[in-house]
């Protein structure tokens, strides 16, 4: 049976994504709406809270699938799974599959895996890769959930 993000992981994603019912550009200039939803978002879009919740569930389902597939056969507790789903949702499946966090998790090096979350604290702002405080805080929260 496929695993899903737990309540602690869902709360973490919601906290750091925030809820915005009108389309906006994130720090990297990507059009976003709801809880970090980016597919098909156009300037001027407006959605309801129920639509935002459904988009988040759909988006998280994709991340859950990637994490389920990537960690198959590896001991992964619920908080580790949920933290990695949050990371995958935020950095994308290609980056997640190549991440040190996943590689160390698969080796059973859980402390190194947790610490590797902290590497993903940068975004391109004005074309320049730089640390973003919101990402630093999110990675710290994901790391904490992962080791709990």
Give a structural overview.
By secondary structure, this protein is an alpha+beta fold. The protein has a single domain (7-147), classed as Lysozyme (Orthogonal Bundle). The chain is built from 7 helices and 4 strands. The chain has helices at residues 7-17, 49-70, 78-91, 93-98, 100-106, 110-117, 133-147; strands spanning 20-25, 31-34, 122-125, 128-131. The chain has a two-stranded antiparallel sheet. A hairpin with a 2-residue loop joins strand 3 (122-125) and strand 4. Helix 1 (7-17) packs antiparallel against helix 7, helix 3 packs antiparallel against helix 7 (133-147) and helix 6 packs antiparallel against helix 7. The chain starts with 6 loop residues before the first helix and ends with a helix.
CATH class: Mainly Alpha
State the separation between the terminal residues, measured CA to CA: 23 Å
Please mark out the parts with pLDDT under 50 across 5 or more consecutive residues, or reply none. Answer: none
Mind summarizing the main beta sheet?
2 strands, antiparallel
Radius of gyration: 15 Å
Total individual domains = 1
The shape is: globular
CATH fold node name: Lysozyme
Please count the beta strands (DSSP E, at least 2 residues each): 4
Structural class: alpha+beta
- Number of separate helices: 7
- Regarding quaternary structure, how should these chains be classified? single chain
User: What is the H/E order?
Assistant: HEEHHHHHEEH
Please report which band the strand proportion falls in: under 5%, 5-15%, 15-25%, 25-35%, 35-45% or over 45%. Answer: 5-15%
Overall average residue pLDDT: 95
Strand order of the largest sheet: 1-2
């Amino acid at each position: 049976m496929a695993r899903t993000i737990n309540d602690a992981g869902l709360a973490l994603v919601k906290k750091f994504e925030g809820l915005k019912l009108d389309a906006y550009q994130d720090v990297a200039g990507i059009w976003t709406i709801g809880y970090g939803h980016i597919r098909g978002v156009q300037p001027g879009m407006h959605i309801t809270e129920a639509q935002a919740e459904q988009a988040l569930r759909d988006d998280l389902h994709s991340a859950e699938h990637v994490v389920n597939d990537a960690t198959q056969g590896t001991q992964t507790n619920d908080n580790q799974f949920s933290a990695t789903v949050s990371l995958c949702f935020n950095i994308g499946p290609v980056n997640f599959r190549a991440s040190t966090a996943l590689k160390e998790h698969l080796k059973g090096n859980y402390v190194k895996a947790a610490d590797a979350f902290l590497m993903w604290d940068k975004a391109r702002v004005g074309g320049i890769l730089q640390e973003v405080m919101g990402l630093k805080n999110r990675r710290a929260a994901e790391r904490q959930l992962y080791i709990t």
